[in-house]
Design a protein that fits this description.
globular, Immunoglobulin-like, four-stranded antiparallel beta sheet, five-stranded antiparallel beta sheet, mainly beta, 47% strand, 230 residues
């Protein structure tokens, strides 16, 4: 199997520009091309005394790579390099709390080296003061051949029924090993093991919107979706 090596080397760890938010990330990531969508996790920490609203942005590299970011609200589509300007996409982190933001990198058959910055802002759309920033050196090496047949067999995950009153299932869930349910502000509600075809009981939850994080056997995030309990 031909492969591409993705190496993300962290140049700066835990950079805070306002004394309240800190970003930390893993240092190296290696991937075979047939796995696609390999990721680096940014841990956002609020070391201040008050909760903080923030948005994120990615400073694009000079290569035609795609990025897919899963924050506390949603797994955004590939090519979204800034938090949408919508109240539904505000990330809120409480004092003393930590949140993980997962950034998947898709090489799109492009080899090269570049540096990018993952930034947190006080306003949406990459505007406003940068309150924390993480700089990464990105290296994509290897043969340009990609297993297209494998890419075609990958199906998008989805929850159904959604909205739901009591139980939900996951479409195309063969790689899902854990299901994590959180409140819209990132508070953990439950974490359960998952087998293909299994349904999950939410009858005990209050009506409202929840975040569902789908995790694989390597404890990597596959997707984040909104689930409405009626």
């Amino acid at each position: 199997m031909e492969k591409i090596l993705l190496s993300l080397i962290s140049l700066l760890l835990g950079v805070s520009l306002n004394g309240q938010l800190i970003i930390e990330s893993s240092s190296v990531l290696e991937s075979q091309v047939n796995e696609t969508n390999q990721s680096v996790t940014f841990t956002v920490k609020n070391i201040g005394d008050e909760s903080v609203n923030y948005w994120w942005s990615i400073d694009e590299s000079s290569y035609n790579w795609s990025f897919k970011v899963a924050d506390q609200n949603l797994a955004h589509s590939a090519g979204t390099h800034k938090s949408p300007c919508n109240d539904a996409f505000i990330n809120v982190i409480a004092s003393g709390a930590e949140q993980d933001i997962v950034m998947q990198i898709l090489p799109n058959n492009n080899i090269g080296e570049s540096t990018l910055s993952f930034n947190l802002h006080t306003q949406c759309g990459g505007k406003g003061k940068i309150v924390a920033s993480q700089e990464l050196e990105v290296k994509v090496n290897g043969d340009k051949s990609i297993d297209q047949d494998n890419l075609k067999t990958q199906m998008p995950l989805s929850l159904y029924p959604n909205p739901s009153t009591d139980r939900f299932k996951i479409k195309d869930d063969k790689n899902v090993k854990h299901v994590v349910i959180l409140s819209v502000i990132g508070k953990l509600i439950s974490k359960n093991a998952h087998k293909s075809g299994q349904s999950h009981n939410i009858s005990g939850l209050d009506k409202g919107v929840y975040l569902v994080r789908l995790i694989d056997e390597k404890d990597k995030l596959l997707d984040v979706m909104r689930l409405t309990k009626e």
